[in-house]
Amino acid sequence: MKKIDDDFNLVDLPIEAQDPEIKKEDFVLQSSDESSHEQRFMTKPTTFFKDSMKRFAKNKSSVVAAGILGILVFLSILIPIISPYDVSTTQDSALANLEPKLFNDAGGFWDGTKKLDHIAVDVSDPSSETYLLPDHDTYPLNGIKGGREGISVGPFEYTNVADKYGIGGYSLIGFYGSEFVNSVSLKSSNPFEYTLDLEDKKFELDLDEIDLTLEQFEVVDLSKIQEEHEDTSLTLPQGYILGETTLDFNYYDKDEKKYVAVPLVEPAVSQHVTPVNPVDIKQKIIDETGVHKFKQFYFSITVTPVEGSPVDANVCGLVKNMVIHDSRQDFVPTEEEPVNPHLAEAEYFSMDLGDNLHGISFDNAMSFIARKLTTGYGVHTQQNRGFWSIGSAKDYSKGVYLGQVRFASFVFDSYAATLGEIEDTLSLSDLINYKNNKWITLYYDWDFNEYDEPYVTEFEVHILNKEKCPLVRDLTVDDVVSILVDQTGRENISVYTKFIKYKYLGFDEMPKFLFGTDKGGRDMLKYVFEGLRNSLAIGVITFAICFVFGLIWGAISGYFGGNVDLAMERLTDILSGMPWVVVMTIIVLHLGRSFISFGIALCLTGWIGTASTTRTQFYRFRGREYVLASRTLGASDARLIAKHILPNALGTIITGAVLMIPSVIFSEATLAYLGLGFQDHSSLGVILSANQDQLFNHPYQLIFPSVIISLLMISFNLFGNGLRDAINPSLKGEGE
Predict the structure, then answer these.
(1) Contacts of 228 (CB under 8 A, 6+ apart)
(2) DSSP codes of every residue in 160-211
(3) What are phi and psi of 115, to 5 degrees?
(4) Which residues pair with 197 in a beta bridge?
(5) I want to staple 401 with a disulfide (CB 3.0 to 4.6 A). Which of 170, 543, 607, 640 is the partner?
(6) Which CATH code of 3.40.605.10, 1.10.3720.10, 3.60.150.10, 3.90.320.10 fits the domain covering 524-730?
(7) Residue 20 vs residue 265, higher pLDDT
(8) Cα(479)–Cα(425) distance, rounded to whole angstroms?
(9) Angle between helices 646-658 and 700-727 (to 10 degrees)
(10) CB count in 10 Å sphere of residue 137
């Protein structure tokens, strides 16, 4: 076998190749002149920017982030321009809190409806299945899918929380543990006096004119409750013990200069005053006080600890009902006296006019506890009703024990409820406007009656354009509810009828708010993107100012070093040591909550981060060989900074600086949560601050702006990292 040599030699070549012939045409002269040079590369030239963009395009996450940022910026400009809705002011209340809607009847998905569970229902009779609608102000019948048949009502549930739709239960009345037995008073240091002027005289309790009778007053103990409910496991709320309970009449004694209590029943843990054995309150008060007329008085239930009770115990009484009959309610209106002056007093205090003494009597503990009338008497806020008092909120508590409530579930369409067919009042100016638009024909006339009061004699409205006109039927004189005529003869007629609300508001069809509306009726889509535009504007402006100033400051400090760096760094330390929230709050409070004041506040310390990063990078690159070589060749400091050091440091600087924009938006949002947001402009922070109380009822009002802020933060972060890697590949992965 022939051995093959690894070295090349002519012997192994063919005979014709062993003596190669060198020919002239095998050589090409590149240049015939005296000078010679390298041949130019036949590739396309590139630039630093183009090369950086090629590297940036290879980072898919950064490209996506840049696309998202571009879309958000584009929408923040476009949507406020093309949207027909006005979000600068609060809109009609009918547009408030409308759910997001894109589809019609999509089974609850993005169609303006929401499923409501455990909504309290007002029952008319606990023994029957009949009930009133859920809160008609919030959930009208025309907004409930399926109407009354669409409401699923559950059984009665026991609850210890007061609810205006609850029934039954026991009034848990008492005071928190104290060394002393507190006297119940509305405001002991300053007597309470009714000052309602009615025909030039103040209201007073005149026992010569009325009769007061205590017909029911039932205080029950725990064994009675367990017997009634057939449940021996029932116990008092934790921390409470039963005390002796009595009903008192309290009046102000001018001689003693304090309120004096007159017990109307004997103190007891359990007692019952039946209708068979009523108590004559009138006579008892006269006998105890010797006074027949009172201006400063109130009724109260007083609870005292029983003998042997712990000093710090929370003492309570469980009152099932209390009914006081007031003969003033037997008043029969006459032509001479058409209004009961005593009932007028009750109306003045917005009381419920019932069959019992206003604001005091109750045969339904849950209903009584649910009454709320906040008054400003006393140091602490009081929850009183008319002449009733339970003492100061500091010492006394009033609650409910084992009240009963029924709850319903249904699908609610907020659009149909508020913008569909509703019943309300229309003014004459509305009808004249419809007439001018040729939607209706209108004819009316009026005159004065024998009391010189205007009344409508003729009134006819016929619909001509059902497509545009909000009215659903023709109107007659029977629909007129009032007419007012001023001294110039100008009339104002009001009619009560059914009409379509969205047409009344000027919409040609039922509107759709893609992301719903807020509590002010503003379209959330336009409102949020207008806020995004303002937030981006202040973010970009602040970024530009802080970036330029921080870049110059950090470049000078890092390049020159020494005493220059020392002096500049100490000033930076002073500014950075001041809490930014305090700095911005002071500036905003002094200069106002305007766009300019926010910009000044954010720029005052916002440049420090950029300056610190720039200084670090200049310390890193100023001693490199290419910088020393350029300095040796005579390059100036400005050229060294701008041409040699800054381009190499720019990647890291840009990464931190770009994140300044979302940081500014977050800072503005933080100030907005402190109540220092923009006053005349919307922003994401202002929107989030204004809607934070809607988290549970209407969460979309927070979700949408929160998603936008989250997208901004994530996108800016990815975009900044991509720019850094593209501008300076040697820094890839740093800062992540």
Answers:
(1) 220
(2) SS--TT-B--EEEEEE---SS-PPP-S-TTS------BSSSSB--EETTT--
(3) -85, 125
(4) 202
(5) 170
(6) 1.10.3720.10
(7) 265
(8) 10
(9) 170
(10) 6
CA distance 691 to 671: 15
DSSP state of 25: G
Q: Are strands 382-383 and 271-273 parallel, antiparallel or unpaired?
A: unpaired
Provide the 3-class DSSP secondary structure of residue 142.
helix
- 175, 395 contact by CB (below 8 A): yes
Please identify which residue in the block is written with the tokens 């009779």: 125
532 closest CA partner among 675, 690, 704 = 704
Helices (H), 378-523: 414-419, 428-436, 501-504
Q: Rg of the Cα trace of the chain?
A: 41
Beta strands, E only, 327-449: 374-375, 382-383, 388-389, 396-401, 403-413, 421-427, 440-448
How many angstroms separate the CA atoms of 657 and 663, rounded? Answer: 10
Q: What is the mean pLDDT of residues 491-507?
A: 92
AA identity, residue 455 = Y
Q: What is the pLDDT of residues 193-235, one digit of tens each?
A: 333 333 334 456 778 878 888 988 999 999 999 998 888 888 8
Q: Where in the chain is the domain with CATH 1.10.3720.10?
A: 524-730
Pairing of strands 244-253, 258-263: antiparallel
Q: Tokens in use for 193?
A: 């006096």
> Which distant-in-sequence residues (6+ apart) come within 8 Å of 721 by Cβ?
59, 62, 655, 735, 736
Q: How far apart are CA 253 and CA 235, in angstroms?
A: 41
Would you say the C-alpha torsion 115, 120, 124, 130 has a positive or negative sign? positive
CB-based contact 399:475 (threshold 8 Å): no
The pLDDT tens digits for 288-310 are 999 988 877 777 788 888 888 77
Residue 595 has pLDDT above 80, yes or no: no
Query: Would you say 683 and 637 are in contact if contact means Cβ atoms under 8 Å apart?
Result: no
